[in-house]
Design brief:
The protein is mostly helical. Helices cover 74% and strands 0% of the residues. It has helices at 9-25, 40-49, 54-67, 72-88, 92-112, 117-139, 147-171, 176-188, 193-207. The protein is globular, with a radius of gyration of 19 Å. It starts with 8 loop residues before the first helix and ends with a helix. The relative contact order is 0.13.
Length: 209
């Protein structure tokens, strides 16, 4: 008989829970986003964000950017502010808007300094948070048959995170949060030690370009 997806609601509900568990498991438990403590601007920005004052933080960075548009740390600081706003906002529409702003600024930072371990890591985490948001966007529809679309979309977004996590690790192999997050990402794909080694070597070739 032809397979009827509607007859498998219990199985699909299980699959949906598994996807959610995976999306949640990739979120670092601590140490995020990574702060560029060597940059005084970033330190000042996080002092303001720690007191929940993103507007003052943005005004501070905007003033610095008017002096130097090509400083990568300033673009990371601005991206960190937008990422903070994304996580703090409760509206899905606003979360997407903040995501787009943060992604643009992280990419600008990496265009200016592709070897920043903090910017690479924070962009990867931004994509992991985006995957979580994508799950919620579809889950809110309560259409159980859409589980395969959830899988496709979240996998694609996690794939976007992967090279930035690997690059961050290669720039700083001592950061435990990066190591843990990368290992969880590999484990979620069932990747063995050879696969890990291959992808790290791929990143090394990219760095030599």
């Amino acid at each position: 008989a032809e397979f009827d997806i509607k007859d498998s609601a219990d199985h699909l509900a299980f699959r949906k829970r598994e996807i959610w568990r995976r999306v949640e498991s990739l979120r670092p438990k601590s140490g995020t986003p990574r702060r560029n403590l060597s940059d005084p601007t970033s330190t000042s920005v996080w002092q303001l964000l720690d007191t929940a004052d993103p507007e003052a933080a943005k005004k501070f960075v905007d003033a610095e950017l008017r002096k130097d548009q090509q400083h990568p740390d300033l673009h990371q600081a601005l991206a960190d502010i937008y990422a903070w706003r994304m996580n703090a906002d409760t509206s899905s529409k606003e979360k997407v808007r903040w995501f787009n702003k943060a992604e643009r600024e992280y990419r600008t930072c990496l265009d200016l300094n592709k070897n920043s371990p903090e910017a690479n890591f924070n962009l990867a985490i931004l994509y992991i948070e985006r995957a979580r948001l994508e799950f919620n966007e579809l889950n809110d529809e309560n259409v159980i048959e859409r589980w395969f679309e959830i899988t496709k979309r979240t996998d694609k977004t996690h794939n976007q995170a992967r090279p930035y996590l690997e690059h961050s690790y290669l720039m700083d192999s001592t950061d435990q949060t990066t190591i843990d997050t990368l290992n969880r990402l590999y484990a979620s794909w069932g990747q063995d030690a050879y696969g890990k080694s291959f992808t790290v070597e791929t990143q090394k070739r990219y760095m030599r370009k």
